[in-house]
């Protein structure tokens, strides 16, 4: 049932999505003096583990904004990989203070970013689902519905969709999403009460398996049956699907365990043709959809936010014109396109069956060359792009 319309105070920018990308952008905008409202359809922050890897460029960004110290000591994430082949990401820039990759659960990152952004004055409204966008010559009106069915309308100068791969803002804003749908699927789950060997992208005759024990004693398993396409399901896979695939690939039974989290992803590779359409912009997975290999999806999104925040803050506070926003597209679109090319190559190496064994052997040989390792490590970690400056107020 729809209630009566309620007017919400205007903001300079409405950010849709209170995940890590939206919250980093909100704080960045506040640093630059912009008034920010964040709309998030979830009533409470997610408890799902999801992404957990942070790269060197991202840690620089978090450090520059005073967020890194709030996260505390982060455990070393190990050497990294390229398509399942060992790649020491520290070789991107030896001696860098954050060389390599680091582990931080998404739940922890979101909690810290929300405290930081709201402490700077960002207004986060949870339980609000965006239902419409109306673009006017000098403003955007965002329609959204609360959990009680009441409809609301927030007016802002700009709207940024940070609402993930199934972005409502992208759809309502009329953005074109170019690229390819997924053809192969990997299942993953966090499971309590199982004892299986740790394995890293272990290839078997029937498929690929990965297992890693978390500090809490649960185990993250990931499994791909060679040639398995994305299933036609509306939600996450069932635990029965995961256990059946795991048994077929490894011969092990994990069905007695307790699933804590279930998820599936595929090798889709898509990117919007423009990151900006007038007063509507996109960042993170709303702007690009990719296989979440090696943590690159999260890090690309956070780097989008860092690139957009100062520009958008300068625009709404009168310190810059529209060209500054167009520069956001000019900077981030080619960077992400290059990253997506690498991710597609990794997906082929990871999810391909015996037919890619020869390619894997060739790539493994190339990875013996230092110049190759450094190049790939710099692309993965984001150190092949300039370090974005933090926002500054007027």
From TrEMBL:
<keyword id="KW-0503">Monooxygenase</keyword>
<dbReference type="GO" id="GO:0004497">
    <property type="term" value="F:monooxygenase activity"/>
</dbReference>
<keyword id="KW-0285">Flavoprotein</keyword>
<dbReference type="InterPro" id="IPR002938">
    <property type="entry name" value="FAD-bd"/>
</dbReference>
<dbReference type="Pfam" id="PF01494">
    <property type="entry name" value="FAD_binding_3"/>
</dbReference>
<dbReference type="InterPro" id="IPR050641">
    <property type="entry name" value="RIFMO-like"/>
</dbReference>
<protein>
    <submittedName>
        <fullName>FAD-dependent monooxygenase</fullName>
    </submittedName>
</protein>
<feature type="domain" description="FAD-binding">
    <location>
        <begin position="11"/>
        <end position="340"/>
    </location>
</feature>
<keyword id="KW-0274">FAD</keyword>
<dbReference type="InterPro" id="IPR036188">
    <property type="entry name" value="FAD/NAD-bd_sf"/>
</dbReference>
<keyword id="KW-0560">Oxidoreductase</keyword>
């Amino acid at each position: 049932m729809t209630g009566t319309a309620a007017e919400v105070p205007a903001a300079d920018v409405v950010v849709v999505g209170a995940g890590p990308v939206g919250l980093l952008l909100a704080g960045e905008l506040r640093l630059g003096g912009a008034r920010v409202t964040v709309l998030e359809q979830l009533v409470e922050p997610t408890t799902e583990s999801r992404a957990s890897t942070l790269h060197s460029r991202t840690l620089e960004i978090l450090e520059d904004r005073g967020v890194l110290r709030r996260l505390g000591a982060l455990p070393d994430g190990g050497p990294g990989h390229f398509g399942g082949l060992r790649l020491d990401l520290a070789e991107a820039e030896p001696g860098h203070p954050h060389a390599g990759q680091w582990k931080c659960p998404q739940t922890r990152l979101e909690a810290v970013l929300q405290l930081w952004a709201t402490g700077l004055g960002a207004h986060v409204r949870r339980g609000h689902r965006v239902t419409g966008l109306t673009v006017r010559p000098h403003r955007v009106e965002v329609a959204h519905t609360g959990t009680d069915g009441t409809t609301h309308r927030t007016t802002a100068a700009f709207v940024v969709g940070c609402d993930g791969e199934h972005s409502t803002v992208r759809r309502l804003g009329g953005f074109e999403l170019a690229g390819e749908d997924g053809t192969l699927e990997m299942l993953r789950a966090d499971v309590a009460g199982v004892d299986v060997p740790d394995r890293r992208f272990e290839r078997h005759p029937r498929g690929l398996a990965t297992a890693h024990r978390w500090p809490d004693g649960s185990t993250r398993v990931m499994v791909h049956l060679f040639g398995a396409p994305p299933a036609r399901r509306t939600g996450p896979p069932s635990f029965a699907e995961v256990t059946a695939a795991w048994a077929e690939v490894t011969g092990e039974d994990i069905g007695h365990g307790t699933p804590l989290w279930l998820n599936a992803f595929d090798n889709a590779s898509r990117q919007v043709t423009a990151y900006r359409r007038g007063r509507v912009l996109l960042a993170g997975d709303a702007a690009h959809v990719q296989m979440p290999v090696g943590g690159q999806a999260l890090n690309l999104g956070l780097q989008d936010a860092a690139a957009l925040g100062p520009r958008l803050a300068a625009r709404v506070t009168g310190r810059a014109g529209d060209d500054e926003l167009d520069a956001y597209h000019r900077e981030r679109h080619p960077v992400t396109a290059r990253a997506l090319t690498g991710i597609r190559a990794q997906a082929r190496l990871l999810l391909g069956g015996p037919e890619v064994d020869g390619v894997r052997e060739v790539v493994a040989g190339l990875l013996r060359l230092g110049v190759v390792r450094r190049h790939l490590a710099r692309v993965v970690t984001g150190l092949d792009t300039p370090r974005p400056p933090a926002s500054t107020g007027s």
